[in-house]
Amino acid sequence: MKLCHFKYYLIIAVLSLAAAFMSGCATQGSYFRLDPSLTKDVRTFSSVGYLPLIKLCDVYGLNYKWDSYINTATIEKENNKIILRSGSDTMFVNGSRKRLEAPALMNAGALFVPVSFAKNTLAPIVGLLPAEEIPEAEILKRYTIKTIVIDAGHGGKDVGAVGRRFHLREKNMALELAHKIKEKMEGSGIRVIMTRGDDTFIPLARRAEIANRNGADLFVSVHINASRTKSLSGFECYYLSNTTDDNARALEAYENASIKIGEEAQIEHSKRLDRTLWDMALTENRLESAELASNICSSVSENFTMGNRGIRAARFYVLKYTRMPAVLVEAGYISNKYEELKLKDSEFLDKIADAVSQGILRYKRQYEKTEGFTRT
Q1: 11 belongs to a structural domain
Q2: What pLDDT shows up at residue 138?
Q3: pLDDT of residue 335
């Protein structure tokens, strides 16, 4: 009987411990227990739990600073420093680039961060547990490309380049090509958002805003090139970086000129804002954008008989203010009489669209396989 009683109490004890352990895991995780005072502040956005960052800092005794110019928060404690930006899933922890489970978000004037940020980033800084005991953040299929914004360049009162021989208008050719790319991408199961679906003028600021607001995974701006040098021809794909040649500088100035054509959005151009956004855009998206441009150019070379001038760098406004990997396609030179003749042919545009689409899909496969080209 005594042995039976011992077994009985042993079973009860084990079950109680298991229940307590499971309860702790189910609510707070096996390594970190969130301060009870924060539970009432949890909000859910896109199925992810979020907390106001300023409240987190108050509870755990961290110094919090918010820069409204660049929508950036800085958190400091002793020798530790964390930098986050609204709308971005990238942060800098003591100079090292890290990823959040989901982007930091502004809501009702406050910056919210995923609850997992407290467990995986703040915990070791505030001394709640050793850094080596922290498990890696679980990322639930974040590295998938589901939505692409295709931006047909120019439109409406912004005609773009005009051909010398047949007087083709860039705005019309870009729109036709953009629609063809859209059709092919949707055929591959990708959700596509167009910045314009007809002959409408859309300010450059609005184009970037459309991509950012819809949480796009990629941004592809479609244009037809032009040059005073009539002999120039071929396909080019640009990504955001320092301008390195005179032709790129001239094209950059031309494409950005539409900012002056009746911008509807108020654009702030302080030197401080421009420089900081520029640096952060390079840090976050330059490698991904360069990879995307490289895949598109390679696809054009492999699948389509067209001169290919390769990937290039420029500071296009429409690329600079997007928060995702972004490229600008220049599909031939409308100023070259031979390419202008080809661009009149809808089948020729269809081949370009197919090559561009195949390049995007190749990038998508690589990106998802490697879980992001710049993941640390």
Answers
A1: no
A2: 38
A3: 92
- Domain of 88, CATH number, reads 3.30.457.10
Same domain (yes/no): 97, 65:
yes
Closest CA to 158 of 210, 209, 213, 195: 195
CA nearest 178: which of 334, 368, 331? 331
Name which residue leads in pLDDT, 243 or 264.
Answer: 243
Residues 358 and 228 in one domain: yes
Domain limits at 63?
Answer: 31-133
- 148 has pLDDT over 90: yes
103 has pLDDT over 70: yes
Number of domains observed in the structure of the chain: 2
Last residue of a domain, one of 107, 133, 159: 133
Q: What is the pLDDT of residue 331?
A: 93
What are the angstrom distances between the C-alpha of 198 and each of 31, 176, 246, 258, 322?
A: 54, 9, 33, 17, 22
Write the CB contacts of 14 (distance below 8 Å, at least 6 apart in sequence).
Answer: none
Q: Give the 3-state secondary structure of the chain.
A: CHHHHHHHHHHHHHHHHHHHHHHHHHHCCCCCCCCHHHHHHCEEECCEEEEEHHHHHHHHCCEEEEECCCCEEEEEECCEEEEEECCCCEEEECCEEEECCCCCEEECCEEEEEHHHHHHHHHHHCCCCCHHHCCCCCCCCCCCCCEEEEEECCECCECCCECCCCCCEHHHHHHHHHHHHHHHHHHCCCEEEECCCCCCCCCHHHHHHHHHHCCCCEEEEEEEECCCCCCCCCEEEEEECCCCCHHHHHHHHHHHHHHHCCCCCCCCCCHHHHHHHHHHHHHHHHHHHHHHHHHHHHHHHHHCCCCEEEEEEECCHHHHCCCCCEEEEEEEECCCHHHHHHHCCHHHHHHHHHHHHHHHHHHHHHHHHHCCCCCC
Same domain, 248 and 331: yes
Answer whether residue 309 is part of any domain: yes
Report the pLDDT value the prediction gives residue 47, as an integer from 0 to 100.
82
The model's pTM? 0.59
Predicted pLDDT at 215: 84
Categorize the per-residue pLDDT at 129 as very low, low, confident or very high, splitting at 50, 70 and 90: very low
